[in-house]
Write a structure and sequence with these properties.
It is a single chain. The protein has 380 residues and is an alpha+beta fold. It is built from 8 helices and 23 strands. The chain folds into 2 domains: 231 residues, Fructose-1,6-Bisphosphatase, Chain A, domain 1, CATH 3.30.540; 122 residues, D-Maltodextrin-Binding Protein, domain 2 (3-Layer(aba) Sandwich). The chain has an 8-stranded mixed beta sheet, sandwiched between helices. The protein has a 5-stranded mixed beta sheet with strand order 18-17-19-23-21, sandwiched between helices. It is globular and about 60 Å long.
Length: 380
């Protein structure tokens, strides 16, 4: 089934944060054929180092059900993917209506919880408890694996990554890793994931999903009523990009944990290399938008090393593993920042395990391994 592309209609009244059935505003979405182009200075002047999309509108888009039926061979996995997408839709509605305020509570790490953090986390727990195929859940807000049902999957999530920038109305996201009952979470690796989802909440909501043959992007709605199908019904999710490929080379860099450059001469040298070679800096401080752009621009590198005075704080299970699976499925590469090996090979020994990370275009991950980790590229 194909979804007919329609224009953006007038905005409807925002839905309740906990009621996905209400009407809401959904913007138009991008083509399945997407590339980015670096334009020259003569044409765009000061924007000569900006990357602009060359995406063209398509006459029709594949529906979520069609893509899952064709590209996801396990029926129960299709079901858990749809359950998680429903949760992302509910979080979208909540972000459109909830104010960003301090909740008055702290998570187990002593961080003040925001109202939107709590709402997003509650929606994820609700989705897992209501799912027929989820067995266990674990949240970054309270990193303990908890029983939620009699299903097959362990779902691990960061409900709303970007708490330090959400008050500024910048893009934030949800990261979800899904493991099967044969491994569970503890003792497993990122390679054991059945799939992963990354939701980006910006002017529109888009979600990356790992399927049998690669990474796909789904967009949430195109009009206040949803996406109209040829038979007159409405579809909330359509496939806006299929089998995304991240190129081996890139000219976009996102340098996290820059304080570590004071301890790591190799990291300072790497950042200088990016500047000397006129790479474009694209860094917001939110992991989801800073890595997600590798899929929309089809290139890029995100670096987050560790040092004695500035240790890396990324969570292996909640953040590194889900993104690692999606990037590697798209032809990119990852580094654990210690051995130079794939982040997906690191064993999850604790729910809140921290890790350094480099992720993105393969040749730049190799450069990180050489200059920061001290590992030379292996000849294939």
């Amino acid at each position: 089934m194909k979804v007919v592309a329609t224009g953006l209609l007038s905005f409807a009244t925002a839905a309740s944060a906990f009621s996905p059935s209400g009407s809401f505003s959904r913007p138009a979405f991008a083509s399945t054929k997407s590339t980015s182009k670096l334009f020259g200075g003569d044409e765009y002047g000061a924007s000569s180092t900006s990357f602009y999309t060359t995406t063209e509108k398509q006459d029709s888009y594949a529906s979520l059900d069609d893509i899952l039926q064709e590209k996801c061979s396990e029926p129960m996995l299709r079901e858990v993917i749809k359950d998680m997408l429903d949760a992302c839709a509910d979080i979208t509605d909540a972000l459109r209506t909830a104010l960003v305020t301090v909740e008055g509570s702290e998570n187990m790490f002593g961080d003040a919880q925001l109202s939107v953090d709590v709402i997003a986390d509650n929606l994820m727990w609700e989705a897992c408890k209501n799912s027929k195929v989820v067995r266990e859940g674990a949240s970054e807000e309270d990193p303990i694996v908890r029983d939620v049902g009699e299903g097959e999957y362990t779902v691990c999530w960061d409900p709303l990554d970007g708490s330090s920038i959400v008050d500024n109305n910048w893009a934030v996201g949800t990261m979800i890793g899904i493991w099967g009952s044969e491994t569970g979470l503890l003792g497993a690796t990122g390679n054991d994931q059945k799939t992963a989802l990354i939701a980006l909440y910006g002017p529109r909501t888009t979600v990356l999903v790992g399927l049998d043959d690669g990474t796909y992007e789904f967009s949430y709605g195109c009009t206040p009523e949803g996406c109209q199908l040829p038979d007159g019904t409405w579809e909330p999710w359509i496939c806006s990009r299929d089998k995304i490929t991240i190129s081996e080379d890139c000219k976009i860099f996102s340098p996290a944990n820059l304080r570590a450059a004071q301890d790591l001469p190799g990291y300072k040298k790497l950042v200088d290399y990016y500047m000397d070679n006129r790479f474009t800096l694209r860094y917001s401080g939110g992991l989801v938008p800073d890595v997600y752009q590798q899929f929309t621009k089809t290139q890029g590198v995100f670096t987050n090393p560790t040092s004695p005075n500035s240790p890396a704080k990324l969570r292996l299970a909640f953040e590194a593993c889900p993104f690692g699976l999606l990037v590697e499925k798209a032809g990119g590469k990852t580094s654990d920042g210690v051995t130079g090996g794939s982040i997906l090979d690191v064993k999850i020994e604790a729910v809140d395990q921290r890790t350094p990370l480099c992720i993105g275009s393969a040749n730049e991950v190799d450069r990180f391994n050489e200059m920061v980790v001290g590992i030379e590229k292996k000849e294939e």
